[in-house]
Amino acid sequence: MNRPVGKAALIINGKRQRKNPLLAHLKHIECVYEDDIKADFVTGATSCVLFLSMSYHQVMGQYIYKRMAKLGRDFELRILLVQVDVENPTESLKELTKLAIHNDYALIVAWSAAEAADYLREFKRKERSTGESLKGSTKSDYKDQLAQVLGKVRGINRTNALSLSTNYGSFRQIVRGAASVDRMEGFGDLKSERFKKVLSEPFAVSKPFSSTTTTNPPPAAPN
């Protein structure tokens, strides 16, 4: 769906969002209220936002499923903006992450009403951008990506990481050639032993990971 939207105006679902506390933080942006839109906020001709507070979700668990089902795929870029306002959001965030992926939404998490409002302003400012712009920039070169990962190891600086990436070419080759890493420039005995120890440790968490089971969204709720 391509909806004509004024360049400066953020369209707000007046029926559902008029009392949302985040509106008090929406300054320096033109807002227009409409009661007949399916989304909570329309930020551009092809982009929209569904808003969800975590406290409301923990009480009304099926609400967001019904909203997503009703909205369908009317917009190319659909954003689920979640405001965390509970003490223990972990399990709910796991559930909502899977829900967003399953329904092709970009999930954005805010930790206050003011932060949620900031995100809305940013979405409106980038209304002509694609969903990729929300992910930030990433390096496409494999060696550079490998160097970034290696640089996370304690004691391995950017120069060391680039040297490893350039000389070995892949993570597999680095593991296989770990015994000779001390011959490389910039690797002393202590740094070499520390790096070898990291490579020899298991790449697994000590406790099994558990997550909540997410069901498919139910049919749209009747008007």
From TrEMBL:
Cited Pfam families: Rad10
- Keywords assigned by UniProt, alphabetized: DNA damage, DNA repair, DNA-binding, Nucleus
Q: What is its main location?
A: nucleus
Tell me which residues make up the ERCC1-like central domain. Answer: 11-124
Q: What's an example GO cellular component term for this entry?
A: nucleotide-excision repair factor 1 complex
Can you supply a Gene Ontology BP term from the record? mitotic recombination
GO MF annotation: an example:
single-stranded DNA binding
Q: Where in the cell is it found?
A: Nucleus
Instruction: State the family it belongs to.
Output: Belongs to the ERCC1/RAD10/SWI10 family.
Q: What is this protein called?
A: Mating-type switching protein swi10
Q: Which organism is it from?
A: Wickerhamiella sorbophila
